[in-house]
Amino acid sequence: MAKTKAKDQIKVLFVCHGNICRSPMAEFLFKKIVADKGTAARFEIASAATSREEIGNGVYPPAKALLKRLGIDTTGKTARQITKQDLDYYDFVIVMDNNNLRNLSFMFGDYQEEKVHKCLDFSSRMGCDIADPWYTDDFETTYKDLMEGLTAFYTTLEENGMI
Q1: Which residue out of 91, 129, 132, 145 is catalytically annotated?
Q2: Cα gap 89→151, rounded to integer Å
Q3: Is 132 a catalytic site residue?
Q4: Phi and psi dihedrals of 14, rounded to 5?
Q5: What are the catalytic residues (predicted)?
Q6: Cβ-proximal residues to 71 (8 Å cutoff; 6+ apart), any chain
Q7: Catalytic residue among 22, 91, 97, 145
Q8: Is residue 16 flagged as an active site residue?
């Protein structure tokens, strides 16, 4: 796990294949978690894709609808591709599945692996993937899995004295 001091801002980037479903869901859900806990000012949170195919597109309508039901507005969010500068800048790069990890390796070769984690690795389901609802059409399960991973991530930061 990347180390930051308690007073430093924690920079988190969520990554999935297209940046229209899982990673923007994670971005906005984690923003809500930290806002609800009163620690939003301690974080910089964003999301990106490993692919280029959805660049410029907004949040996928079923993901957007799920977030809207939770009172979360995704206005202005458009897909973008992760860059090498992102890998250097963010303290934590949290991916959704093994394909995302493989794609990062293809894109960047050697990178700071201690910064990169799968979302569920912070939970009791270490090593598990967050299924892509683009293929499963099961946005509720993706939401539940994300909340499990994001909540465990926040708890890990607390337990390590980073918040």
Answers
A1: 132
A2: 23
A3: yes
A4: -95, 135
A5: 16, 22, 132
A6: none
A7: 22
A8: yes
